[in-house]
Amino acid sequence: MIFAPEVEKREFMFMGFDDVVRRYISFKSLDSLRTYMADIVPRHAYYSVGLYKRPEMRKMEQRGFEGAEVLFDIDATGLEGCSYDLYFCEECSHEQQKEMQRCPSCGSERIKKMDWLDEACIRAAKAEVKKLLKILREDFGLGNDGILVSYTGNRGFHVRILAKEFLKLGKEERAEIAGYISARGFDYEVFSSAGGYKFPKPDEGGWRGRFSRALISVLRENKMDEIARDIEEGKTIERGFMRKRRWILEKAVSRMKEEAATVDEAVTFDIQRLTRVPNSLHGKTGLRAMTLTYDELDEFDPFTDAVGLSDSPVKVRITRKVPRFSINGLVFGPYSRDEVLELPAYAAALIVLRERGKAEI
Amino acid sequence: MSFLAKYPFSEEAKKLVEREGLSIEELAYDPLLSKARRMAKERLERAVSRSSFYQPDLLDPASEIYSLIIARIIVEGSKDEMLRNLLAEYESKRFMHLSKEESNENLLRIASDLNVKMELKEEFRVWILDYIRLSKRLKDSKWRAVNRRIEGGYVLLSRDEARRLLAEAVRERILSKIDVPELPSPFLEILKGLKIPRKAVKRGKKGLLPCVESLLDSIMRGENLPHVARFALASHLLAAGWSTEEVLDVFRHSPDFKEKVARYQIEQIAKKGYRPPSCRKMTSWGLCPGECRVRKVAKAD
Where in the numbering of this chain does the DNA primase large subunit C-terminal domain appear (chain B) (predicted)? Predict the structure, then answer.
């Protein structure tokens, strides 16, 4: 069932299969939202992170802004193990799996990068969500009940903070929080003084503690146990010693940053953002956007848990290479161009919505 | 009572005078308040000329409190953002000065008055959201939350750092808007007498990155920019062909402007030919919330 907390305070936007955008819509109740969506069957359904007195007004000044949830957007694209899998020339339809800037067949630079959705991407994105939740818990003191995690229906997750104190934050504060999550601005020179480096102790909280633990492990790996012990005991390390071994500090920073979460900072900053309505279907996958509890996240597999369409057969003509994939417990593909197949609707939809095939009627 | 004279911005102080429920006319014309009006004038003059503060009259908190109220009314009525920032800078510095010897207990009392969640266990600690809000003008590395000691949602601070954050909370309070009707003529007189150090900047903003442009707008409103922001702004303006004098005129709007220091720094940047920081750098310094090159953040999913 479609769900939106505080539905009456949000702005909604719908994109139909006709590509018409309907904006500045508000609903008095969940029921009316559900009826509306059942009527128009949108391809994409979005709602605002912002809460307003009059969400349907077009001008921001007239809406009566009450606050906005802090939203983190975690997208698997670009994460390790999840990248583009197909490059397609829009001029001559040449396609290849290797990256290309220019089409080797016709020389055009109109290259479309295409991605698929697979377990590796979901796994990578989930790992980022967990890192984010850990930081929110340890450093911001937020329990799981103040946080809502949802699967976007495509290659990522949304994490939003519902706690009241966060609603009123301004843009600058949001940017600062997003930066904090990714350890941006961390600077080990703040530990140095004329006397030498006084590094944080490993049991400290925040990024200082994470850095300390990373530094100690790098030192141990490089057989500098004594220095590691000095740091554990809070002793000052001689300046010259560290200066000559900057690489150790740099390595410790990059190890520390493995604990940072990759979030799209422009999203967190934007209090006027619109995001996908939980439990609506994603128009690029046919999968369901879903709200998850912390415990569900571990086990969650969109290819079984978020399948949003039926298994009634649909005929599809493949237009671009489709990798092997599994959904709803069945394995499909790989398929190559011009194959015509009859597939369950959920599998056909994935292929069609990712622009790798066309439905044959 | 001396507490209220030292911290006239506090809610406690406001309560003391609220009982009287004076109208703006009474504040402007009541002969009993002539001392407060004189002090308000002096407050604003010192703020505008960026000079040091006078010692508060600890035996007469009411005048001290009324003078701040009058000064804020004049600022609000002037609709002058630069004047507002100058007064906020002045009050925040004044707080730093007067709180030096203050008891820890009173510091916590001020914190709670300013709605800052601050505690004293073995050390001072402040709730992370308050910290992030209050430290946003202090962009030096050591103030960034990533470089701070943090425990379960609280940032640990030394006593001096705690005072510095409270000074920012004072700034925030003075910057906040109040409802003010038309200024009565005695207040307009005071306003007219102020020599606000404003310089027209003739050069257009053409060719500047949106991020730099927004730094320029902030400083022209008299906002107090952190050091890195000043460096970024000065080096970008110089690179865009502005002269040292033109850049100096921009910095005159800064609430803590000191001509000798500013001139020296700008000349150094020009002489040594420092490359202006890239978008990437400026973003990592937290200077460009959102995007550095793009004017408006597109929204989509």
Answer: 210-289
